[in-house]
Amino acid sequence: MSKRVMNPAARITAVALATAGLGATLVAGAGSAFAAEGKAVTAPAALTASAAVAAQADAQAHVAAQVKAAVAKAAAVKATPVKAVKKASPAWVKPVASYALSASFNQGGAMWAHKHSGQDFAVPIGTPVHAAAAGTVVKAGPYGGGDGPAYGNAIVIKHGNGTYSQYAHLSKIKVSIGQKVGAGQQIALSGNTGNSSGPHLHFEIRTTPNYGSAVNPMAFLRAHGVGV
């Protein structure tokens, strides 16, 4: 068997090819390693950016929730009805709402045996007459409720502060003795009964339920906050 001898030129060529192949393998390996290394380096940056976006989204959602809650709270406050403050009822009021003042307290004249004991409010017959303050009716009826025929139909009310109010010359009485009334409650209709020169309400403030104890009714009402 004869020994095969490689041509020197062919051997050189084979060695060159083998060397080239190894280099390619090394280069390819290095490239792969570099690519893998680059991927490993850039991965943390990508993860950090994603986390930042997520954190920003969470913060925006939190702010949006706070704004929504504030708007809802404001709407609830606006929708809550405000309770009206109830004003305290005045203790004393006018005995008639609309009037013209005529004969005044302590006025002299042929109409009276003595000086005038009250204040006259000129009003048409049938005008509603109101209790000047809360109290209890102690007189009600004709002949001044017991004070004399000059008063015509009359009412006397006892009040909590120890004073009395009288309403005379009435056309109709709407309360009875012993009845409790409130300030401003309608108790009668004005008229022209008794010793009267024309339709009006005769109004007195007294220190007792009887004739002869009257004080200036206008000064009394004004002292108690009534504009007359």
Summary, kept brief:
By secondary structure, the protein is of the alpha+beta class. The protein contains two helices and ten strands, in the order αββββββββββα.
**Oligomeric state of the chains?**
single chain
**How many runs of DSSP E, i.e. beta strands?**
10
Radius of gyration: 55 Å
Largest sheet: 10 strands, antiparallel
N-to-C series of helices and strands: HEEEEEEEEEEH
How is the CATH topology of the largest domain named?
Glucose Permease (Domain IIA)
Strand content: 15-25%
The level-1 CATH class of the largest domain: Mainly Beta
CATH superfamily of the largest domain: Glucose Permease (Domain IIA)
Number of domains: 2
Mean pLDDT: 79
* Poorly predicted runs of 5 or more residues: 1-6, 8-41
Number of separate helices: 2
Please tag this protein with its features.
228 residues, alpha+beta, Glucose Permease (Domain IIA), 10-stranded antiparallel sheet, 35% helix, disordered N terminus
